[in-house]
Amino acid sequence: MNRATVLLLSVVVTLSYAPFVLAVEPIELFNGKDLSGWTFRAPQPDAENPFSVEGGILRCEGKPAGYLRTNEKYTSYLLTLQWRWPEGSKPGNNGVLLRIQPEEHAFNNTWPKSVEAQLRNHHAGDIYTIANYPLSGDPERTRGRYTAKAHKSNEKPQGEWNTYEIVLDGENLTLKVNGLVQNEATGVAVMPGYVAVQSEGAPIEYRNIQLTPLKN
User: Fold this and answer.
1) 8 Cβ contact list (under 8 Å, min separation 6)
2) In this structure, what DSSP letter does residue 156 have?
3) What is the Cα–Cα distance from 122 to 8, expressed in whole angstroms?
4) For the chain, what are the domain ranges?
5) Nearest to 114 by CA among 126, 96, 99
6) Which fold has domain 26-213?
7) In sequence order, what are the residues at sequence separation of 6 or more whose Cβ sits closer than 8 angstroms to the Cβ of residue 99?
């Protein structure tokens, strides 16, 4: 991506989310070449890393269970990424973890305290809270730590790329799937934390992972 393209994207993002987005270039969290800037975490310290990079794509085998998280912490931001279920595999469960807190694996001895933007097949846009992370979803769609998406699934067929736009603006969370706002929440605890993608049983692929900080 050349500099002119990046600057144009910055302008588009600023106009779309003004006045909350800082006039800065998006941060390329995934460089398309290797896992620089990321750390794999799992309950077993010697667990094999299921994430690899090939042809500009971040690939996850789905096993062992764990998550690949950024080395840097972020608080308020627009996070965009693309994902797909590889052809020939069985789509399953996965998610994007937001504002990860100190990494005691508090849920099922695997997942840290965080907010999960769900990526389970046909459930992209659902919200889960992990280890009692404070958040308030629509009461009509919330059951315990789960807030269902507002619309039926609008995910693309297996093998095609989907786009997630995740906005964490202070206490407010918005999840947009392929251009459609699928979920919103308020009262999200404002704490700096890591961003991560899960390894949760099924192969999945990612690309174009970018983060644009928002004004506090």
Assistant:
1) none
2) P
3) 32
4) 26-213
5) 99
6) Jelly Rolls (2.60.120)
7) 74, 75, 114, 115, 133, 168, 188, 189, 191, 192, 193, 194
DSSP single-letter state for residue 87: T
- Amino acid found at 48: E
Distance CA 108, CA 173 (A): 25
pLDDT in tens, 105-150: 667 778 999 999 999 999 999 999 999 999 999 999 999 999 999 9
What is the token pair recorded at 42?
Answer: 């799992």
Name the nearest CA neighbour of 199 among 96, 106, 102. Answer: 96
**Bridging pattern class, strands 66-70 and 77-84:** unpaired
Distance CA 109, CA 134 (A): 20
- Cβ–Cβ under 8 Å, residues 163 and 39: no
pTM for this one?
0.89
